[in-house]
């Protein structure tokens, strides 16, 4: 069975500072990894994905994530946070074209 | 491209009543998903269709939930009878084999 852990319910960061939202996964074989963002009363929006290749993937709105196979992690990062980045972030994993499994989400709060 | 359309946006019903949600996926997307998102949790897959066939419905409470995608395009999810614990946001998503999932804005169901 595949699973995702997001160990932090909430991350607080000041505007302009770097941010990291943590994600670890468990899946047999090679994972497909995703980050989605959810704004209030909206559906999830795709940010970025790792399928294969370079371990550092870049996505929308200046976000990036680093795939670390030895640590089974896929942390989301941004060099300089914006207040408008405040939202709920979900990490997700699947093997091949199997079902996509989501973590419980991490609320990111960026203060002015 | 037009996004995934869902209706209604909000629904309030009493327990033991029935309710139906509608989803129209992105044109050309063969795969359609229904997810349940309970407050404070990540989305949980209820059912996945490939065209008009069911790929995965292992987490669908089949005694009360049903879903169909008769013509391989739009889909309906029904709950009958509803329970208090069914209160959640119901998200529809679609994809093709190479794309990430694209989500609709969801239907927020409140069961009283």
Named CATH topology of chain B: Immunoglobulin-like
Distance between the terminal alpha carbons of chain B, to the nearest Å?
Answer: 37 Å
Number of alpha- plus pi-helical segments of chain A: 0
Biggest sheet features of chain B: 7 strands, mixed
CATH architectural group of chain B:
Sandwich
Residues in helices of chain B, as a percent range: under 10%
Main attributes?
heterodimer; A: 112 residues; mainly beta; Immunoglobulin-like; six-stranded mixed sheet; four-stranded antiparallel sheet; globular; B: 112 residues; seven-stranded mixed sheet; 11 strands; 0% helix
Overview of this structure, please?
The complex is a heterodimer of chains A (112) and B (112). Helices cover 0% and strands 52% of the residues of chain A. By secondary structure, chain A is mostly beta strands. Chain A has a single domain, classed as Immunoglobulin-like (Sandwich). In chain A, a hairpin with a 5-residue loop joins strand 7 (56-58) and strand 8 (64-68). Chain A starts with a strand and ends with a strand. Chain B is mainly β and 112 residues long. Chain B has a single domain, classed as Sandwich (Immunoglobulin-like), CATH 2.60.40. Helix content of chain B is 0%, strand content 49%. Chain B has strands spanning 5-7, 10-13, 19-24, 31-37, 44-50, 53-56, 65-68, 75-79, 88-95, 102-103, 107-111. In chain B, strands 2, 4, 5, 6, 9, 10 and 11 form a seven-stranded mixed sheet that branches. At the A-B interface, strand 6 and strand 11 of A face strand 5 and strand 10 of B.
Question: Helices and strands in order, then pairings?
Answer:
The complex is a heterodimer of chains A (112) and B (112).
Chain A: E1 3-5, E2 10-14, E3 19-21, E4 24-26, E5 32-38, E6 44-50, E7 56-58, E8 64-68, E9 73-78, E10 87-94, E11 101-102, E12 106-111
Parallel strand pairs in A: 2-12
Antiparallel strand pairs in A: 1-4, 3-9, 5-6, 5-10, 7-8, 8-9, 10-11, 10-12
Chain B: E1 5-7, E2 10-13, E3 19-24, E4 31-37, E5 44-50, E6 53-56, E7 65-68, E8 75-79, E9 88-95, E10 102-103, E11 107-111
Parallel strand pairs in B: 2-11
Antiparallel strand pairs in B: 1-3, 3-8, 4-5, 4-9, 5-6, 7-8, 9-10, 9-11
């Amino acid at each position: 069975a595949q699973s995702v852990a997001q160990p932090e319910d909430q991350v607080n960061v000041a505007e302009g500072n770097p941010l990291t939202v943590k994600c670890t996964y468990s899946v047999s074989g090679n994972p497909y990894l995703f980050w989605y963002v959810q704004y209030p009363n909206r559906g999830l929006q795709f940010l970025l994905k790792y399928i294969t290749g370079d371990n550092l993937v870049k996505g929308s709105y200046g976000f990036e994530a680093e795939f670390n196979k030895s640590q089974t992690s896929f942390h989301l990062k941004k060099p300089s946070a914006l207040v408008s980045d405040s939202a709920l972030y979900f990490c997700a994993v699947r093997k091949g074209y199997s079902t996509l499994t989501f973590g419980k989400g991490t609320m990111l709060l960026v203060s002015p | 491209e037009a996004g995934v359309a869902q209706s209604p946006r909000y629904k309030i019903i009493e327990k033991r009543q029935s309710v139906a949600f509608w989803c129209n996926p992105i044109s050309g997307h063969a795969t359609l998903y229904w997810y349940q998102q309970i407050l404070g949790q990540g989305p949980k897959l209820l059912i996945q269709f490939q065209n008009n066939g069911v790929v995965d419905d292992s987490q669908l409470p089949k005694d009360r939930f049903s879903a169909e995608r008769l013509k391989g395009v739009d889909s309906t999810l029904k709950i009958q009878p509803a329970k208090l614990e069914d209160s959640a946001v119901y998200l529809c998503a679609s994809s093709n084999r190479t794309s990430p999932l694209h989500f609709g804005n969801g239907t927020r169901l409140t069961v009283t």
